[in-house]
Amino acid sequence: MTPQEALARIRRYDARLRALVQVFDPPLPGENEAAGGDGPVLCVKDLIDVAGVATGGGARVPLDPSPARHARVVERLLQAGWSIVGKTHTVELAYGGWGTNRAVGAPWNPWDAQVHRAPGGSSSGSAVAVAAGFCDAALGTDTGGSVRIPAAVCGVVGLKPGRGLVSLRGVHPLSPALDTVGVLARDVAMAARVLGAISGPDGAVAVREAFDPEAALAADVRGRRVAALAVEALGEVDPEVARLYRDAVARFADTGVVVETVAPPPILEDSFLANGLLMAGEGWRIWGPRITHLAEVMDPWIVRRFEAGRGITDARLEEAHRRRAEDQAAFQAWLAPYDGLLSPTCPIAAPRSRRWTRPSRR
Known about the structure:
By secondary structure, the chain is of the alpha/beta class. The chain has a domain at about 5-215: Amidase signature (AS) domain (Amidase signature (AS) enzymes, Alpha-Beta Complex). Helix content is about 35%, strand content about 15%. It has ten helices and nine strands. Helix 8 (about 265-295) crosses helix 9 (about 300-305) and helix 8 packs antiparallel against helix 10.
């Protein structure tokens, strides 16, 4: 789509959906492109810096009122010719999975025009913007599901890269041990091409070579072995989610992939404890002074989540890091015979929202 087409849809629908906290009109143009050119068009989660534009972080008091420069991922997409039409809602400080935000408001899942349903989080606005056709793709961040969950409940593609592939420069942290920048898009090919543009070494945490989207998209998958988690072994899964999952597994098999149904390894469930400790402990160390000073104007649920990390000692954090490394090694050994793993992202469809709202910033 063109930037002007994107802006027209935003003007028509976003007063209801509230995907964006800031609209760039005219758009921020990609290199070698005048504002209002031919696209492609991007939205950016409001946890990622755009130079001169307040990074709100889902808060009433911005995390940075005027960043001096773009985040590295924004720079790379502008260099690749993308235009940026706005910044999108996030759960406050990115610490939540359903998209709730009692500080500045929550977007409306666009698939239900009658009921305000959860958009997923924390990259809530990015998923809604893609699903509503406000952009070709959007950037999100993912620490514990914050790209994958909103992508699932808004019906778009969510791509969380592996660690070390995408720069975190100019991206405000939640848990440095777990944070990643990811992509939300209407289809797999678009998501892959965005990843190709934003990936590659940055002299810091990004140490892997850039992803080659065209090679990946052209790869022959016939004969590849994929493990599919047995839905019966996943606890309570909504019947419609289970049906759609089984249909997706069957479509994988139709491509020539060899699908083997397996039980989840015990390590999968056990890993949640270490990751939860890392998020709470590292999150409090980063944001504790801000929360102590600004708690009265923050989402109270987010304040409680962060405060749970106050008592996590350095020794417990070190143990969590060690446990996570062991869990990763055990899981990788379990997965070694396979080329991939299939699983439902969420066990339920988007639930009805509660009273989360405050007016969005514009």
